[in-house]
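Usage

Read records sequentially. Each one opens with the input sequence:
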Amino acid sequence: MPAETWLPAAALAVEACVGYPRALYARIAHPVVWIGKLIELLERRWNNPARSDAVRRTLGMVTMLIVAGNAGAIGYAIQLGARQFPFGMIIVVLLATMGLAQRSLYTHVRDVLRPLARDDLPAAREAVSKIVGRDTTQLTPSGVAAAAVESLAESFNDGIVAPVFWLAVGGLPGLFAYKALNTADSLIGHREPRWRAFGWASARADDLANFVPARLAGLLIVAAGGGGLRVMMRDAPRHASPNAGWPEAAMAGALGVELGGATTYDGVMHERPLFGVGRRPDCDDLRRALQIYLEACALLWTLALALAAGAVLWPH
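and closes with the structure output:
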């Protein structure tokens, strides 16, 4: 099934204007929550420590295929059915917006910037705790700014560029399957003993799905920030993830600051690689990062519009 080439541009525009319909999700929950419940159900039933790693790895692979396959099949059925109705593709666009996070990501990071700018450190720590997994109660103002910048850069790929990429490649099925893989990786794709075998397939599939989008996200940040390519190419491979380092290193280079480094999760100190050189970020850098983010989103819009225009000018 060929993806409607105008779908990414339409979904980006609608999501930027409307964002998440919170009243609807308060009643039925976001589809990612449904995916998460299915993953948790299968994990409880199949990830038995008494089983060998080989069996758990196989069952984890089956879990990944069930979750992503069902998500893609639902997307296929919806998009195929929508073609039978005059305004059915409007529904497809609205459903596609559920996989994007332009507006919500901007709002969450702006909510960190506002208290940080007025020197309200407790409120800034509380706001940043909603978008990062690290411990935030002891963060300095610079630590809060760094956490917000790093989350903004990484989520630019996971929440925007990668979903748009797979929406462009595979329409609604591609988007739904990607969100399912990404959710599975978040829930079970960990290296701790409980998940190492069972979550292996989900982690590897998510790495593969993000390989191209992460590098595209990094290039968009470099282009929007007017620099940082050298830092991105040098420092991105240092990240433990094959993909997360690209947008993060690109943002460090664009801002001319140092990101990464040691931080605390659940009371345990974790050493992380450093990205970029120079001073640690401050409130002004976070403000600049938000501006780069908006400009990078605008560049992504341009690519989506070019894709739609190309399909009109050079139809198959």
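Summary fields computed downstream for this record:
- The first helix runs from residue 7 to 18.
- Residues 54 and 197 are 7 Å apart (CA to CA).
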